[in-house]
Amino acid sequence: QVQLVESGGGLVQAGGSLRLSCAASGRTFSSFRMGWFRQAPGKEREFVAAIRRSDGSTYYADSVKGRFTISRDNAKHTIYLRMNSLKPEDTAAYYCAVGDSNSWSYWGQGTQVTVSS
Hints:
This protein is an all-beta fold. Helices cover 0% and strands 56% of the residues. The chain contains no helices and eleven strands. The chain has strands at 2-7, 10-13, 18-26, 33-39, 46-52, 58-60, 68-73, 78-83, 92-99, 104-107, 111-116. The strands form two sheets. Strands 2, 4, 5, 6, 9, 10 and 11 form a seven-stranded mixed sheet that branches.
């Protein structure tokens, strides 16, 4: 089992920045990759960014490329999502997840990000 705890969400004006954190505990050695997803009201959960544990390769949704940066601290079993130039359409609950190469197995409880116009 892996437990994930997100933090860092909040209310910010458009154009502002936030940094989300996700601390993992438990069987963290099994986490081939870690990532962020988000879900806005009335919409499906969507992929935001991911990072591979072994070599730090990163992947982003087109909607956040150039604005968001995912990073990791393997020693602390923590990943971060730096979000710059935030837009109202970035408003959502953001979820941290870990998984192997085929699926996402564990999810955090989510942290709310609200961007005001």
